[in-house]
Amino acid sequence: MKNLKLKFKIKNLCERTKKASRILALAGTGAKNRALVAMGKGLVRNASRILRENDKDLNLARKSELPPAMIERLTLNASRVASMAESLFDIAKLKDPVGEAIETTKRPNGLLIKKVRVPIGVILVIYESRPNVTSDCVGLCLKSGNALILRGGSEAINSNIAIFNVLHKELISSGLPADAISIIKDTDRKIVGRLLVESALIDLVIPRGGESLIREVSAKSRIPVIKHYKGVCHTYVDEFADLEMAEEICFNAKVQRPGVCNAMESMLVNRRIAKKFLPGMIRRFRAAGVEIRGSAEVKRIVGGAAIALATENDWYTEYLGLILSVKAVKDVDEAIGHITKYGSCHSDAIVTENRRNAEKFLNEVDSACVYVNASTRFTDGGEFGKGAEMGVSTDKIHARGPMGLEELCSYKYVIYGKGQIRR
Amino acid sequence: MKNLKLKFKIKNLCERTKKASRILALAGTGAKNRALVAMGKGLVRNASRILRENDKDLNLARKSELPPAMIERLTLNASRVASMAESLFDIAKLKDPVGEAIETTKRPNGLLIKKVRVPIGVILVIYESRPNVTSDCVGLCLKSGNALILRGGSEAINSNIAIFNVLHKELISSGLPADAISIIKDTDRKIVGRLLVESALIDLVIPRGGESLIREVSAKSRIPVIKHYKGVCHTYVDEFADLEMAEEICFNAKVQRPGVCNAMESMLVNRRIAKKFLPGMIRRFRAAGVEIRGSAEVKRIVGGAAIALATENDWYTEYLGLILSVKAVKDVDEAIGHITKYGSCHSDAIVTENRRNAEKFLNEVDSACVYVNASTRFTDGGEFGKGAEMGVSTDKIHARGPMGLEELCSYKYVIYGKGQIRR
């Protein structure tokens, strides 16, 4: 009985969202931008209320002893709320992707074929921790004409609802359909299963969070899923690297914000420059509180006592904290081989002044983002000029890397004829 | 024991294909084109052998009394083999999508970000009947740098293997990796289930065939699926249509090749011109052997005896044969409403000289291909200038409508820095 009622409620929510999605898909750019700006202002105006609700979540998190990386992701403060609002203002300034002709072809028979960007429809986002995901997703979906169902984690439920309520009120005041965005307030896990079978009403599922969440969603879903898996990101310091530059890049990639998916987890160093590069680099890491887990060779070079021996499992691990695995490799080929075997196809960098090695690395490493001479920390919708991001896809289908407005669109073919028939 | 052996065999096949996919991904355009031309010539040279194998399939099909639409799809002849070869020559002439920079951004911090087209990796195609799918898929995957595993239906197994063998021999002679294409010769259905869990080795599954096949694949697959569902295609004849043009378009859309997914299944006619348009149109359809199933109003207009009364189920049905459902509607809004409810988001057309109604229809009908004043029969990779097609996607994720070379690609971000770190 309770299950039937739940099923009915979910179905009803999905049907209302689908209906609203057709209206939002046809909404003008001006109306969408006005709503985005109003939402941003609403967040700033209601910051103290949002922070009070965030405090509730943080208190519960500390009581239930969530890991520090998770608490860091969960934490809001005035500046993080302000930057959520900034993202909404930025999204309002971005070009509306909807209706853009991606390609126009005139066929020999006179048919004019336009490939036109259109919204995907209804998107379900299932996420953990970071409450800013709530407003980033609302902003990006609204601008790209997609209706949105949010399902946040129970650990951030108060923060998420507080943020959502502010945004929803402004959406309604702007005259856009109220059902275009909604949040699931009930934290019952059965609800996710119910949502994932509604393949006729929901067009796409984006899970963001831990590996187990993503695996569970992928296994259960009858709806297409774009996975945002872990980031086991590497930096390879080539024998032809500018070693000073390499030190700055590696330090930044590991230490600047270790709790996120684009932080470096594994450093690979060419054997020929390892003795010159590693001791100073590792001293600097250790001074910043980074625990080093090195291969036997790295231990020998740096002096065994200072660092732990990496196990096979270390090479696969996304630490999301101040731990780094370090390996010496023979050349760029061995580095590529290591990344192919242990990486997660997220973001990987080479530091080198040698053009051939750079191009080899960029071509052969099969990751969403491949860098030469820059920190992997740049893998981010904002840094890529997309205003904000729905996350970083580690899939190859539809969207790869930071997902912004264009990646939230599908397309349709619009064909203009003058009575053409097929012979 | 047998199951374990099967599992091992499938795993091994997938691993070899994955490995070959990394080599093929980096292959030059010249090498790929030479292989495509050799394959096309091989088909022509071996046409009589292929037709002999096709005869075996056709004899079995007739014995097991397959429906005529299926036998029509299964049938090869000299001209169909020649057009398979033509498709391969056409694909060789198309621009190589791999490596193309889709977008280039220079960020304020100096980072140069290139969004570059790359192959998806390993693609599994599961298909029924039409043997030309074998060579179209090989051609498109090869040119787009993707490795391919083919799993055809048992009803076409002799034709498919004959075609594959010709193509495979030419691939090897061209020096490209032999494992880049393979066909599953064993028709045991368990194999499909085994393939669909290999999500680390296969990047995409494309099922082409009946609805039950596609539903089964979608339900079982742990790998992303791009569905090629049915085509319940509509033509709406507006009150402002050029009625002579409308008659030609509707006749073509229904009769020219009724067994395929882009043929019209349902004709909607504006009430104001129904009396003028329908009697002659339906006479012509009936003379061509088309069975008409009309709404009560259509029966009244045309004269009840000549046509059957359409049931609710008729509006949802893809006949794939000489049957047509016909309905009178009040206006373009009712036509759009009908298509939204009963259509399959494949291809739908409006015939009208009224610009407002045309734009309304094109914007609001949420289908892969929307036409004004042309036959829906044009929804086809070749007709769209794509050389050939992997099929027509009715999904909105990644690819929609005819899938050609570009739609068989993913992309990666290649980022060039000069030591940039994130602040």
Short description:
The structure is a homodimer of 423-residue chains. Chain A has 423 residues and is an alpha/beta fold.
Can you tell me about this structure?
The structure is a homodimer of 423-residue chains. The first copy, chain A, has 423 residues and is of the alpha/beta class. Chain A has two domains: 2-226 and 403-416, Aldehyde Dehydrogenase, Chain A, domain 1, CATH 3.40.605; 233-378, Aldehyde Dehydrogenase, Chain A, domain 2. Chain A is 43% helix and 20% strand. Chain A has a seven-stranded parallel β-sheet, sandwiched between helices. In chain A, strands 5-4-3-6 form a four-stranded parallel β-sheet, sandwiched between helices. In chain A, strands 1-2-16 form a three-stranded antiparallel β-sheet, with no helix packed on it. In chain A, α10 (243-255) links the parallel β7 (233-237) and β8. In chain A, α2 packs antiparallel against α5 and α3 packs antiparallel against α7. The longest helix of chain A has 24 residues, at 2-25. Chain A is globular. Chain A starts with a helix and ends with a strand. In chain A, 55% of the residues are buried. The mean pLDDT of chain A is 95. At the A-B interface, α10, α14, β13 and β16 of A face α10, α14, β13, β15 and β16 of B. β13 (369-374) of chain A pairs parallel with β16 of chain B.
Key structural traits:
homodimer; 423 residues; alpha/beta; Aldehyde Dehydrogenase, Chain A, domain 1; Aldehyde Dehydrogenase, Chain A, domain 2; 2 domains; seven-stranded parallel sheet; four-stranded parallel sheet; 16 strands; 43% helix; globular
